[in-house]
Write a structure and sequence with these properties.
CATH superfamily: Divalent-metal-dependent TIM barrel enzymes
Number of strands: 8
Shape: globular
Number of domains: 1
CATH architecture: Alpha-Beta Barrel
Helix content: 40-55%
Order of helices and strands: HEHEHEHEHEHEHHEHEH
Distance between the termini: 55 Å
Radius of gyration: 23 Å
CATH topology: TIM Barrel
Mean pLDDT: 91
CATH class: Alpha Beta
């Protein structure tokens, strides 16, 4: 004969064993993704400066890259000859601290950018990068007004050329102290104020994790204001594997789920002895399985 307490104990043990068995079984189930990868892979040139550009293009193509980016005009033909694109164009005058939020910079920038925009269009490059500049004591709303004013004629140039000007969101805590475009909301407000499909944001996942987190929710809410993405591990801007805090597979899936068809650029600083092995790993992590 068993009493009620013994019966209850046996029942709980049975239920616990069943639950544990189901949990173990669930962890061994591989559910294939039904998502089709819409975006393409890119990498930022500056992270691999010790590798000749021609070699980087050749090896990058073997890894699965479609683009090397943040290249100056004289570098574009080198990667294009290897069958790669340049997803984002830049040149020496594109300054992070001295950007469009300061009206004193407008004349210089408005004189320099049109030629880069036209060259990018002729080379089939979709994006040209720009920056807000540092605050230097300026209020954010004033800086936003100044950026809109300074960018207006260049956005018209971009519309005519079929190129998108993209302003990069950067962190102002670690890497770019005092930079103004350091939150998604500020960047989206600028996009809305300018009101052109040829001006949007470069959403840097590394920088925005440092500044505000909430990556997936922000991407889902504001993806129409974003034209390009960058990666990087937090902390340290190293590899994007499990050694850092961002769940990149989940973030990348969220980006893909928005219907994004542009490029995702690897912009971490490799710590591996073989930088190309680090790049290969990053591309793999950012590939839907």
């Amino acid at each position: 004969m068993i009493n009620r307490r013994q019966l209850l104990r046996r029942s709980l043990l049975s239920v616990g064993a069943l639950s544990l068995g189901n949990a173990i079984q669930a962890t061994n189930i591989s559910i294939p993704s039904t998502s089709k990868q819409l975006f393409q892979h890119s990498a930022c040139r500056w992270c691999y400066q010790d590798i000749p550009l021609e070699e980087l293009a050749e090896r990058g193509k073997d890894i699965g890259l479609k683009s090397l980016e943040l290249l100056r005009p004289e570098e574009w033909p080198i990667v294009q000859a290897k069958g790669l694109q340049c997803a984002v164009a830049t040149d020496s005058f594109a300054s992070i601290p001295n950007g469009f939020n300061n009206r004193k910079n407008h004349a210089t920038l408005q004189a320099a950018y049109p030629a880069l925009i036209r060259k990018a269009a002729d080379a089939g490059i979709p994006n040209v990068i720009c920056f807000s500049g540092n605050r230097n004591g300026m209020k954010d709303d004033k800086g936003l007004e100044n950026c809109a004013r300074g960018l207006a004629p260049l956005v018209r140039e971009a519309e005519q050329a079929g190129v998108t000007l993209i302003m990069e969101l950067l962190n102002s805590k670690v890497d770019h102290k005092d930079y103004m475009a350091d939150h998604t909301a500020w960047g989206v407000a600028l996009v809305n104020k300018i009101g052109s499909p040829n001006f949007r944001l470069l959403y840097d996942i590394y920088h925005m994790q440092i500044m505000e987190g909430n990556l997936i929710a922000n991407i889902r809410e504001h993806h129409t204001a974003i034209a390009h993405y960058h990666t990087g591990g937090v902390p340290g801007r190293r590899e994007i594997n499990a050694s850092q805090e961002i769940n990149y597979p989940a973030v990348i899936k969220a980006i893909n789920d928005t219907g994004y068809t542009g490029f995702i650029g690897q912009e971490f600083i490799p710590s591996y002895e073989s930088k190309l092995d680090a790049l290969r790993e990053g591309v793999g992590i950012c590939s839907l399985q």
